[in-house]
């Protein structure tokens, strides 16, 4: 479980470069999904990654001028 948590923090939560987020394959190879709670299975981690990418994109795109850009309008 620590391995999954460390991966999420290091590779997703602290990432600030939109080009360096882990791929689905990297996420699936990072830890054994069967040894962690369902809340951090590979699919959930992929959702966390995608949400973080959208958040950073909006932050970089909008800067100090908020727009009405919605998450579903951002294509990954």
Task: Report on the architecture of this protein.
The chain is built from three helices and no strands. With 76 residues, it is an all-alpha fold. It has one domain. The longest helix has 21 residues. The model has no long low-confidence stretch (mean pLDDT 90).
Question: Secondary-structure map with pairings?
Answer:
Blueprint: H1 2-13, H2 24-30, H3 42-62
Spans of 5+ residues with little confidence (pLDDT < 50)?
A: none
Overall average pLDDT: 90
Distance between the termini: 28 Å
Largest sheet: none
How would you summarize this macromolecular structure in one to three sentences?
With 76 residues, the protein is mainly α. Helix content is 53%, strand content 0%.
Highlighted features:
76 residues; mainly alpha; 3 helices; 53% helix; elongated
